[in-house]
């Protein structure tokens, strides 16, 4: 057993070539709540990964879910964090990758899936494809507000992680996100959320 990563809530390791994501106990949580959150997030992540794959997104395949032990066994993606790839990419590559992401997010939102923790660290780049991971906070929803919020969160994380390339990334991403249903309503809601946030910061 080889520990690959220690996340905020999970240990990730390789077992027989498969990636195991095991949600571990957080001592600061009341025991009962801790068990419940680990169970819910494990179930949710496995289900959303399966739904996302069915919708046509590139995500790791889920082999098995072991709810009792808060474990998901999934395909191991031998790749690099997209964050690093974007940092070292030239302008054309940045545009290509951002275009791929925008298209994938439109597919995801059209399938009424939101991720809720979109960052370039929750994406892996392998074999010319972008893989989306870490769906434990995601949800199934038809609400415009939820889809808009998914974009707002992602936009902020990109501004922080890729300040100098942000404009190029976001322009390409939005250009390919255009195929989403209810585009104008979602974008209008993004504006409302961002204006509200600026107002709160200023006052
Ligand atoms: N299917 C996978 N294949 C390869 N690496 C993975 C996979 N899933 C997760 N990882 C690695 O483990 C890290 C943490 O996983 P993630 O699901 O994002 O958990 P956390 O909720 O702790 O952030 C990822 O950033 C990635 O480096
Ligand atoms: Mg993560």
Can you offer a commentary on this structure?
This protein is an alpha+beta fold and 203 residues long. The chain has two domains: 2-75, Phosphorylase Kinase, domain 1, CATH 3.30.200; 80-202, Orthogonal Bundle (Transferase(Phosphotransferase), domain 1), CATH 1.10.510. It is 50% helix and 20% strand. It has six helices and ten strands. The protein has helices spanning 31-55, 82-88, 91-110, 144-161, 166-177, 183-202, and strands at 2-6, 10-15, 18-23, 62-66, 71-75, 80-81, 113-114, 123-126, 129-132, 139-140. A hairpin with a 3-residue loop joins strand 1 (2-6) and strand 2 (10-15). The radius of gyration is 17 Å and the shape is globular. The mean pLDDT is 96. Residues 4-5, 7-10, 12, 19, 21, 60, 74-77, 81, 121-122, 124, 133-134, 136 line the site of adenosine-5'-diphosphate (ADP).
Topology diagram in text:
Elements: E1 2-6, E2 10-15, E3 18-23, H1 31-55, E4 62-66, E5 71-75, E6 80-81, H2 82-88, H3 91-110, E7 113-114, E8 123-126, E9 129-132, E10 139-140, H4 144-161, H5 166-177, H6 183-202
Antiparallel strand pairs: 1-2, 2-3, 3-5, 4-5, 6-8, 7-10, 8-9
The structure holds adenosine-5'-diphosphate and magnesium ion (MG).
């Amino acid at each position: 057993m080889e520990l690959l990563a220690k996340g905020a809530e999970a240990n990730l390791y390789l077992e027989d070539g498969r990636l195991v994501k095991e949600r571990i106990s957080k001592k600061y949580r009341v025991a009962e709540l801790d068990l419940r959150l680990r169970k819910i997030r494990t179930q949710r992540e496995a289900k959303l990964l399966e739904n996302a794959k069915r919708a046509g997104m590139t995500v790791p395949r889920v082999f098995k879910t072991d709810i009792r032990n808060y474990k998901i066994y999934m395909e191991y993606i031998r790749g690099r964090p997209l964050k690093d790839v974007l940092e070292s990419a030239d302008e054309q590559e940045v545009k290509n990758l951002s275009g791929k992401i925008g298209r994938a997010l439109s597919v995801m939102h059209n399938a009424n899936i939101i991720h809720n923790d979109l960052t370039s660290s929750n994406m892996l780049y392998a074999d010319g494809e972008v893989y989306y991971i870490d769906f434990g906070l995601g949800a199934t929803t038809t609400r415009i507000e939820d889809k808009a919020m998914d974009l707002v969160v992602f936009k902020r994380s990109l501004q922080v992680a890729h300040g100098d390339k942000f404009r190029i990334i976001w322009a390409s991403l939005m250009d390919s996100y255009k195929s989403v249903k209810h585009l104008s309503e979602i974008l209008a809601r993004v504006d409302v959320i961002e204006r509200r946030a600026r107002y709160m910061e200023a006052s």
